[in-house]
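Sharing a chain and its predicted structure for anyone who wants a worked example. Both blocks are below, sequence first, tokens second.
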Amino acid sequence: MRRTTGITLALTATAALALTGCDAAKDAAGSALSSATAAVASAAQETMDKVKDGVNATGDVKAGATRADGDRTVADITATNPKDKAADYTVMVTFRDTDGNYLDSVVLNIDGVPPGQSKSGTARSNRTLSGATKAEIAQALRH
């Protein structure tokens, strides 16, 4: 009986340590992913901040459904130019999961959109995204 109790206690302690180790590893991985995700978002915003003389044009731009393209997620992005002269668009696209959690951001240029017309480009994720995703227009500048 004592031997069985000792073995049971040893196994319980080992399992507890293993679970604690897994939790620590998960926390470390989650922290690293969170830092990498924040860096991607920051880099995308820095790219947007470099656009000179850009006018908010989020209403001119629409994101299509996402789909897989190899190991990346892509979405067609369409800019419709309501002005009377050609315009270039710089667009920050954010990929989110179905719960709205942030996954990735990319910046896309759609150049030479004729007046009164539309032109499309493809936003491609920086990394492999798993599960169902959606693309959103986080920011769009017409210049």
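Comments welcome. The chain is about 35% helix and 40% strand.
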